[in-house]
């Protein structure tokens, strides 16, 4: 039995009647969780709801509402987080409806989707929410039936007293149970008793998605709402000089044209306040088309800025951020990265005596890898609804982390936090981009200025050229093999613009498996802004490192999986250093699973295979990618994927995530790239920015999970980084040529 | 501005807008049909796909003045209860991740099945290659189309 103290986050378990509050701007789901084939008749709504805690209310007819604390961007939390609550509540999933929780970190603690942490960090709280409600339901039944609590059992929304053959639904005691105080400690289920967690459940908003219901930020509409767009500098390194509002003021439907600053001058930015263009021009009008036309017609002059610096509060550390002036170009970036990468960097980790070891090595292999800036390109461009009134504000839209922006917004509007209601809509993709919510602040500032509800819409071009990109990176790897072809020394030197990919990863594999190890880094300042992008930093390192290990294994004359497993064997039994940031058993586990499931070692004519594995965001992933050459071009036949993320809450949805990460990774390996010329992003829409499409996706993907009872860890990010290495390694097998610089399209190879 | 009488989801609809307004924005801003999505505005992502006389059409590049009385169907009008075979198959395969591209994917798939009731993999890939899914749900889309063909 697992007893868990309910004290942690106890505030969440105080009774919260009418916690939802606020005007309904977006329609919430009132449909039952979808079973296939549209059998999901709407459930009969109860006459009365009884609140058990911030997560759960139960109706007198047994219908259960579970609130999902974290915003949904396609990773499935709106289904999986309520599943966890329902599990320890022992609810009947068919009777559960899911609602988006209001933003209130007093009640829900962590309401942020990012870092693949929703399930990992929500796990205990969600289970506790279910278990405490179940406990008081049992207590109420025991009182009603005058039997002891120990004799009461539950199953799928029903309460039983077996010896007297009594039973009833949760709804029948809901009113009584909801009045009982929550217990000090509750019993959680054992994983072996799970009935919902670990079984595949359909997306709770599936039916609304396929019928085109207004779920997204862009769909928010309110009486009297105006449409706003922004005009931002066309190049990094430029700022607003002047604009001619007379050129568009008289155009049809245009209400207002003005410039504004996103932050007050004296405002101290936080880490997620990344603000590429602090001053913008806003155009406000009646309809999207009218505003778009005015945006095209507006005459604006820009000028270069020299340099600016500001103080930032980076999670409690005050740091000065320097933004260099100048108009940067990708060609210069490449030259400068090569220059810095040739010099010693800042040492992050050193084991043994790497330089001596390299001198003694029988073979030394050295290779350099690079990858470009990437734009997130969420299918739903940035947008936000805002209605700022004199005494309160309502904002609604797509954002991953309201807690990162609420203070910023409050400061900018000059309005106390408690008067601001932030609603989280379903997001049309996030991938890290929506952790930076400057667009929310912009919408609110515009609404405040025009005194009306406003929906701010970015065009695709705005979205793609607004910065907050994945940085560009370069890394050189060096390996020394002894006369028995055993890895004796390993060296990585990596950096990027404007950050290094290595900082938090120097203690990852193969550190710990080799006696002489050196990791060092460098970086180059830039005025091009960057942000988290699906598995930040790992999304470059994994590809480079796993391609390199393939080449080292080949030089050592070893099978690439066997080569990695031998290194992990060392890390298991006799690790070098103490700070190793991975579990060698679990790492080896995914490699062994993928070896078995892919029938590794079985050659098939015309099929070239590449393997790759990585650990990040607390989870382990390994892929075997099968490629065929068709008409001289590679086509991915199949990807076999093995994952260890502990307990898998919703297996089919988890497989969907992994499939998506694999497709996304293959696309970015071949095509993903943002380049600059004189500060101007050279791609602003999908004509130039190539995205992977249906005919370029693998023909099949098989996802396998390591079965264990370890508390769950993240899944949105971990399968993404290693796919780059699997692509490169399979390409080598198929073409005889190693590829070092992403995107591979730029090296003259494209998908069939 | 000019008055247009449209036939949208089997209903007559009248609007007074600039004749150059793309049908996408007429649907979203003026007719309260936000299921059709904006993704690129240049006919390259497929998010805005609708049917005009049963043919998959990018509404972001179709000026309202060119619509006439041709029959326009949007995701909201594809079926009464969300029970079009493509929608059912989509739920069965739990296709969507973020869901933003899916209205366009479904409209492209429904038009494909109308013209080729039993499409081959190659036909599916080519008919669907104009619809970007940033979340990478292409494999499920393909499977769901095959399932829908049997429903
Ligand atoms: S919005 Fe029409 S194709 Fe992209
Ligand atoms: S499901 Fe997110 S873009 Fe397709």
Describe how the helices and strands are arranged:
The complex is a heterodimer of chains A (752) and B (151).
Chain A: E1 2-5, E2 49-51, E3 56-59, E4 64-68, H1 77-89, E5 96-100, H2 105-108, H3 118-145, E6 152-155, E7 158-161, E8 166-169, H4 170-178, E9 185-188, H5 206-210, E10 226-231, E11 238-244, H6 246-249, E12 254-261, E13 269-270, E14 279-285, H7 288-297, E15 299-304, E16 307-314, E17 317-324, H8 330-341, E18 346-351, H9 354-360, E19 363-371, E20 383-388, E21 393-397, H10 402-413, E22 420-424, H11 438-450, E23 454-457, H12 460-464, E24 472-481, E25 487-497, E26 516-523, H13 538-555, H14 560-573, H15 584-597, E27 607-616, E28 619-630, E29 633-644, H16 651-670, E30 676-677, E31 680-681, E32 700-705, H17 721-735
Parallel strand pairs in A: 4-5, 10-23, 13-16, 21-22, 25-26, 29-32
Antiparallel strand pairs in A: 1-9, 2-3, 3-4, 6-7, 7-8, 10-14, 11-15, 12-14, 16-17, 18-26, 19-24, 20-21, 20-23, 24-25, 27-28, 28-29, 30-31
Chain B: E1 2-8, E2 11-17, H1 23-30, E3 49-52, E4 55-58, E5 71-73, H2 85-92, H3 102-115, H4 121-128, H5 138-150
Helix pairs in contact in B: 2-5, 3-5
Walkthrough of the structure:
The complex is a heterodimer of chains A (752) and B (151). With 752 residues, chain A is α+β, with helices and mostly antiparallel strands. Chain A contains 17 helices and 32 strands. A seven-stranded mixed beta sheet of chain A has the order 12-14-10-23-20-21-22, with helices on both faces. Chain A is globular and about 80 Å long. Chain B has 151 residues and is of the alpha+beta class. Chain B has two domains: 2-78, Ubiquitin-like (UB roll); 85-150, DNA polymerase, domain 1. Chain B contains five helices and five strands; from the N terminus they run ββαβββαααα. A five-stranded mixed beta sheet of chain B has the order 2-1-5-3-4, with helices on both faces. In chain B, helix 2 (85-92) crosses helix 5 and helix 3 (102-115) crosses helix 5 (138-150). The structure holds FE2/S2 (inorganic) cluster (2 copies). The site of one FE2/S2 (inorganic) cluster has 12 residues of chain B, from loops.
């Amino acid at each position: 039995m697992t007893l868990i103290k309910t004290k942690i986050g106890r505030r969440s378990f105080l009774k919260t009647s009418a916690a939802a509050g606020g005007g309904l701007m977006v329609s919430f789901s009132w449909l039952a969780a979808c079973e296939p084939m549209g059998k999901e008749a709407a459930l009969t709504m109860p006459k009365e709801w009884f609140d058990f805690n911030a997560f759960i209310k139960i109706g007198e007819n047994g219908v259960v509402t579970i609130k999902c604390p974290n915003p949904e961007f396609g990773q499935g939390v709106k289904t999986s987080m309520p599943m966890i609550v329902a599990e320890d509540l022992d609810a009947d999933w068919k009777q559960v409806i899911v609602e988006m929780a209001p933003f209130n970190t007093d009640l829900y603690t962590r309401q942020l989707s990012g870092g693949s942490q929703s399930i990992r960090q929500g796990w205990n709280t969600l289970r506790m929410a279910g278990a405490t409600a179940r406990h008081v339901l049992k207590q109420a039944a025991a009182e009603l039936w005058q039997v002891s609590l120990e004799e009461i059992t539950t199953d799928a929304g029903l309460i039983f007293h077996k010896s007297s053959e009594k039973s009833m639904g949760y709804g029948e005691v809901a009113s009584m149970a909801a009045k009982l105080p929550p217990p000090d400690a509750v019993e959680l289920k054992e994983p072996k008793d799970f009935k919902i967690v670990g079984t595949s459940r359909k997306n709770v908003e599936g039916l609304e998605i396929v019928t085109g219901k207004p779920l997204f930020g862009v769909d928010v509409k309110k009486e009297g709402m105006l449409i706003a767009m922004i005009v931002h500098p066309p190049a990094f390194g430029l700022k607003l000089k002047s604009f001619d509002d007379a050129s568009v003021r008289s155009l049809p439907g245009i209400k207002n044209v003005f410039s504004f600053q996103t932050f007050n001058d004296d405002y101290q930015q936080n880490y997620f306040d990344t603000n590429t263009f602090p001053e913008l021009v806003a155009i406000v009008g009646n309809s999207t088309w009218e505003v778009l036309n005015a945006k095209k017609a507006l005459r604006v002059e820009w000028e270069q800025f020299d340099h600016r610096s500001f103080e930032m509060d980076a999670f409690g550390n005050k740091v000065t951020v320097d933004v260099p002036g100048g108009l940067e170009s990708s060609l210069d970036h490449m030259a400068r990265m090569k220059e810095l990468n040739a010099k010693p960097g800042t040492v992050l980790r050193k084991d043994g005596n790497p330089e001596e070891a390299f001198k003694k090595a029988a073979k030394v292999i050295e290779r350099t890898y690079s990858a470009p800036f990437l734009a997130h390109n969420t299918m739903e461009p940035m947008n936000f609804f805002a209605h700022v009134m004199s005494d309160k504000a309502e904002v609604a839209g797509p954002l991953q982390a309201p807690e990162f922006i609420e203070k910023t917004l409050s400061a900018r509007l000059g309005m106390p936090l408690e008067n601001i209601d932030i609603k989280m809509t379903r997001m049309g993709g996030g991938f890290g981009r929506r952790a930076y919510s400057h667009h929310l602040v912009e919408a609110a500032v515009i609404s405040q200025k025009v005194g009306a509800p406003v929906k701010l819409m970015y065009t695709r071009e705005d979205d793609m050229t607004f910065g907050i990109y994945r940085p560009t990176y370069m890394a050189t790897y060096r390996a020394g093999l002894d006369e028995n072809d055993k890895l004796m020394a390993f060296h990585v030197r990596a950096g990027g613009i404007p950050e290094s990919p290595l900082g938090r990863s120097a203690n990852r594999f193969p550190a710990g498996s080799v006696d002489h190890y050196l990791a060092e880094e460098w970086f180059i300042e830039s005025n091009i802004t960057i942000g988290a992008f699906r598995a930040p930093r790992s999304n470059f390192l994994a590809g480079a490192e796993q391609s390199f290990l393939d080449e080292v294994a080949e030089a050592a004359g070893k099978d690439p999986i066997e080569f990695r497993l031998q290194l992990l064997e060392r890390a298991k039994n006799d690790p070098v250093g103490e700070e190793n940031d991975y579990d060698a058993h679990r790492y080896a586990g995914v490699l062994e699973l993928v070896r078995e499931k892919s029938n590794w070692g079985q050659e098939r004519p015309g099929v070239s295979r590449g393997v790759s594995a990585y650990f990040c965001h607390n989870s382990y992933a390994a892929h075997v990618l099968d490629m065929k050459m068709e008409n001289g071009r590679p086509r991915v036949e199949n990807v076999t994927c093995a994952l260890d993320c502990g307990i898998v809450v919703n297996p089919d949805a988890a497989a969907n995530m992994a499939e998506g990460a694999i497709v996304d990774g293959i696309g970015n390996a071949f095509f993903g790239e943002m380049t600059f010329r004189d500060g101007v992003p050279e791609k602003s829409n999908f004509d130039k920015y190539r995205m992977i499409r249906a005919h370029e996706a693998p023909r099949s993907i098989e996802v396998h999970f390591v079965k264990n009872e370890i508390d769950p860890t993240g899944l949105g990010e971990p399968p993404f980084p290693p796919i780059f290495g699997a692509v490169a390694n399979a390409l080598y097998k198929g073409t005889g040529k190693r590829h070092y610089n992403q995107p591979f399209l730029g090296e003259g190879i494209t998908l069939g | 501005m000019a008055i247009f009488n449209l036939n949208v989801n089997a209903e007559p609809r009248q609007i007074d807008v600039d004749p150059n307004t793309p049908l996408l924005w007429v649907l979203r801003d003026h007719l309260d049909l936000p299921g059709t999505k904006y993704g690129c505005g240049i006919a390259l992502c497929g998010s805005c796909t609708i049917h005009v006389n049963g043919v998959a059409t990018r509404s972001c590049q179709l000026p309202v003045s060119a619509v006439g009385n041709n029959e326009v169907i949007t995701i909201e009008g594809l079926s009464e209860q969300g029970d079009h075979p493509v929608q059912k198959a989509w739920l069965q395969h739990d296709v969507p991740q973020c869901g933003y591209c899916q209205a366009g994917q479904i409209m492209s798939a429904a038009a494909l099945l109308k013209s080729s009731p039993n499409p081959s993999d190659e036909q599916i890939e080519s008919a669907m290659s104009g619809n970007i899914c940033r979340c990478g749900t292409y494999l499920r889309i393909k499977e769901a189309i095959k399932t829908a063909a049997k429903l």
